[in-house]
Amino acid sequence: MQPDQNAIIEVRGLTKTLRSGSTQVDILKGIDFQIPPRQFAVIMGPSGSGKSTLLGLLAGLDTPTGGTVSIDGEEISRYSEDALSRIRAAKLGFVFQSYQLIPTLTALENVLLPHELHAKDDGRPRAEALLSSVGLADRMHHYPVQLSGGEQQRVALARAFMLRPPVILADEPTGNLDSATGARVMELLLDLNRSEGTTLVLVTHDPTLAELAERKILLRDGRVASDELIHRDGVIA
To answer: Which residue range(s) make up the domain with 150?
Structure first.
């Protein structure tokens, strides 16, 4: 069956099983959903429900035991590592809980890194514009150790959008931040998401973040327990 061209992310019958000797652990047990372009969806669930495993499969960082994952019309589940690297460079941006900045590079150099690895034109103007958009115009030449946690995560946001990916995947992006700083980072992430026209999929355990989303996918015991479209005033579908 061909991927749905109207969905930028499509998951069909996705399973993930881990084995250790005679022990088998079924982490994902047949996940199905589609996400259209530009939607902001959160994936929630209790610890051990499979949230981070699912995000890793969407990112092509792991291989499913069964089922398929399609990103922007390409079914990536059995792609080679070279092909997955191309997909990640062209179509996916990542925001991690732990920032994942390179300590020996400045903020500007960290943002420029994806561009230098995968593009040939001059990326400096865009990197500077992105850092300015997240309030770091005066911190571009600082190293991560010289930046607060909130500032480091803002650098990570700018880096995620550097190559204009159609999809941003975020794993607990405010998990290491205090509530006020986390709220500011989320505000900036959503501002960037709207201005860049991307699709945002965010894994979180925070119900406050879920209230900001257009859609909430709840996992429980490796399955989709509920899948709701959300309006600011409540559930609309």
So the answer is: 37-59+81-235
Print burial letters for 193-218: b (CB count within 10 Å at least 16), e (below 16). beebebbbbbbbebeebbebbbbbbb
Cα separation, 227 vs 218, whole angstroms: 6
Q: Is residue 199 part of a domain?
A: yes
Rounded to whole angstroms, the Cα distance separating 107 from 140 reads 5
In the prediction, which pLDDT does 154 show?
A: 96
State the average pLDDT for the chain. Answer: 91
Strand-pair partners of 163: none
Q: Tell me, rounded to whole angstroms, the distance of Cα 14 from its chain centroid.
A: 18
Tell me the H-state helices in 95-199: 107-118, 124-133, 149-161, 179-196
Best CA proximity match to 214, nearest among 91, 50, 37, 96: 37
